[in-house]
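[Q] Does anyone have a clean structure-token version of this?
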Amino acid sequence: MLYYLSQLASSLPPDAPMRAVLSPLRLFFYITFRSAGAAVTALALSWWLGPRMIKWLKEMKMVQDYVDRAQESGDLQSRIRSKRGTPTMGGLMIVLVLDVTALLWARWNTLILLTLLTAVVLGGLGFLDDYAKMTRQDSKGVREFIKLWVQGALALSIAFYLWMLPSTSPLISQVMVPFFKLPVLHGTAGAVVGILLTTFAIVGSSNAVNLTDGLDGLAIGCTAIVSFVFLVLTYVVGNSRTAAYLNIPHVSGAGELTVFCAAMIGACLGFLWFNCHPAQVFMGDTGSLALGGVLAMVAVLIHQPLALALAGGVFVAEAGSVLLQRGWFKFTRLKYGEGRRVFLRAPLHHHFEKLGWYESQVVTRFYILCVLFAVLALSTLKIR
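[A] Here you go.
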């Protein structure tokens, strides 16, 4: 919105009296300026909205009064305080701040609108899941297959839309792999693989962030780190000269996603202010499903979906631990008549809690790992 207001300065005649007054608005033409503004705006909005949102959730009795899955076994000694009674559905604040800030500072194009659509749809799905948990007072929520169907339908719709649109068709039909200069697949085969890859990225990332959201500040902090990676990638991909120099595909309009990523960093840091240990509010599925899907959406729109697997290595490890645990348990139960475990508990962060790590230790060490994965992802810009 601010970008369009800035066009007033350039549209006025040279001798117009208001031209000198409005000339500072030309700053809004610069992506770097608008990105900085978006980050600060999102952070300030989160700080302002946070206490009000927490109070409202408590008044609406949207608190965690059911037994958390991580506490069902009753022997996690590293839990210093009970999570019960803490407001959840704080993801409403994240999605609201993210959407308002992006609409305020970004130039509205197809890439921005698709990203905002992803945040709203997956945030709405997470809201229904959280609301079901609150009203039923159990930890079941929306059934898993329903969530997967909604996520899959959204991802497939976006993949086909991008493929059918001439300006964005290469994002699907040309499959890019980190550390390679040229597409590894293109044409019909590339389109098939691209559609599947886009769907898997959105569904997988959404659920991976959701699985990571089990300790105070863990998921939101890691999301902020990964968002910084895509802040850099979107700026590079959106700049034709820089993209050509680094031998990566240029995507017209991708620079506006830099503004979105900056807004996401600000929103994440603002929420982390209230979500750090001991948490005053949880994001719930409302926030985790939306953030995970949005990260994948940005990766797809800049032609780097597989780079998300590198930058989000912590999320991959968390999701992989659950898949491995479930798969091995079912296999050994069929073979030996008794299910066996690979980890003491899944997702992976609960395994380390079982080993005796304090919650703050797990979160801090996962942050360090996330930074290392971020550096690895950024190295793909030069190592090709």
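[Q] Thanks! Anything notable?
[A] The radius of gyration is 22 Å.
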